[in-house]
Amino acid sequence: MEVAVTALARPGLEPLVSGISAVVARGLDPEHTAYAAAGVLRERLPGPGLLTPEERAGRPDTYASHLLHAEEGFSVVGVVWRPGQVTVIHDHVSWCAFGILSGVEHETLYRDMGDHLRELGRTDNRPGEVSGFAPPGDIHKVVNTSAEVGVSVHVYGADLRRLGGSVRRAYDLPVR
Fold first, then answer.
1. Which Pfam families does this one have (predicted)?
2. Which of 38, 65, 136, 175 is the S-S candidate for 97 at Cβ 3.0 to 4.6 Å?
3. Cα(98)–Cα(159) distance, rounded to whole angstroms?
């Protein structure tokens, strides 16, 4: 058995990890696991001190992901977005729950229609808000639309030490 990689000394991480571990141990399907993990994240959303000041500064060229904990079954990642930083349209390898600590993550959701993507909707995720989703309904693009650095906590149902990242596919299909 491989030992989990974590820095549990980070403020607020240990209660989150123990709660997510209990959810994963229940063996629910991906959709129900995502919703249950979102419930734990909602109850135990850490503060900005989860990341160091250097981590919270972000990167000038792209959003930054910081792997905070990984074990068989799930990973916890801190994501830092400077104003205007954006992802490509993408989906994920597993279920995900996320909570916003600062900034505004403007999310656009899409459906794959085969030869194009159809926009399904948009939402602004604000500080304190938590959500969860599972494939196949997870094609999206995210941008920090606020004037401040955005920080969010993401929990993915995969060991990102082994995978290297949470993105399954980036989409370059036209949007209609």
1. CDO_I
2. 38
3. 16
Residue 154 annotated as lining a ligand binding site: no
What would you report as the CA-atom Rg of the chain, rounded to the nearest whole angstrom?
15
- Which residues lie closer than 8 Å to 27 by C-beta, 6 or more apart? none
Query: What's the CATH code, domain 5-162?
Result: 2.60.120.10
pLDDT by residue (tens digit) across 59-103? 999 999 999 999 999 999 999 999 999 999 999 889 999 999 999
90 annotated among ligand-binding-site residues: yes
pTM: 0.91
